[in-house]
Amino acid sequence: MFLIYNDIIIYLLRLFMSKKSAITFYGIWPEMKEYVEKKMKKFSCEILSEKLLPENVQPDTEILASFVESPINKAVLDKMINLKLIATLSTGYDHIDLKECKKRGIIVENVPTYGENTVAEQSMALLLGLTRKLFRSVKRVKEGRYDFHGLRGVDLAGKTVGIIGTGHIGAHFIKMISGFDVKIIAYDKFKNKDLIKKYGIKYLPLNSLLKKSDIISLHTPLLPSTFHLINKTNIKLTKPGAFLINTARGALIETEAIVWALQNEHLAGVGLDVLEDENLIQNFERVIGNDQKQIKTTLLNEMIINHPNAIVTPHNAFNSTEALQRIIDVTIDNIQKFGAGKIQNEVKILK
Ligand code: NAD
């Protein structure tokens, strides 16, 4: 029964595809290529290792699969006139111009829940790395100095942890950190009653959360309503000596606010897996021609990266073996179901 259903899907998808190379995967690393090829072997499909850029667009593409590293903006869409589906290999979709897609009738689908534990684990790693001065400690020992002086950390037990965004990843982070004997407060547009019941968390307005938290961890999508949720003004409400963790999206925090907090030793440390305008970091030739704001942000990002109280990872939270498998499997399923006329993980335009 399952085989027949699968064959029908494949038949419909083939009918649906009118040209060669109708499906293009971008940014597929060599170790993943064989697996994707095998799963897609019955389709006309191109699997590329390079990330999607306006310069390497395959114009015949009808179904596009790519990672968040590739902004899908008007310049890219203008070159893909046959595009019907964007299957992003991610949960977040702020790298895609959804309004332009809607205008052109292009469907966008994502992978909504591959990384609940994966991303929350990275948040935890950044947090413990900061509170126990892990990276400085390891570096010192590797440099031949086996000496703990100057490396005193702080306990998590007894602290107040403020979670901004209690969706899939935020909820998982709450589950993990509740094992550390902390008090948990939260801010979200919607209250999750299960989390209140299970972990005794208390929802507060954003400013109250910022004032009360010893640790703040962000887990909301980047939307117009969450852009610079933490900014130059409200960062001053945070507790002196607090820690700030962000594995969600860089532009949730105004970059200048982070630099201010580090330079004035207002925050004890920041752990970031994402930075505002991160696609410009170490791509200085791309900065040329960009607006003043992006050039400034790129310079400020360098200051953060080089600050001793900052730990920055290169948007790597999604990157575990198990999560990648889930990303690939769900993306291929999104594509195959789309071919059979079913849209299962459509992204909606949110404010
Ligand atoms: P989710 O949709 O399950 O949860 C998001 C939560 O944010 C929801 O509870 C929602 O109500 C809340 N929210 C939305 N707008 C809000 C607002 N204006 N004010 C307050 N709360 C608001 O999403 P998720 O699966 O938990 O993922 C969260 C984000 O993590 C993703 O959107 C993505 O940007 C990011 N992410 C990062 C990585 C990485 O590799 N660094 C990987 C996966 C996801």
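^ nicotinamide-adenine-dinucleotide complex. Residues 116-312 form a domain with the Rossmann fold fold (CATH 3.40.50.720). The radius of gyration is 22 Å.
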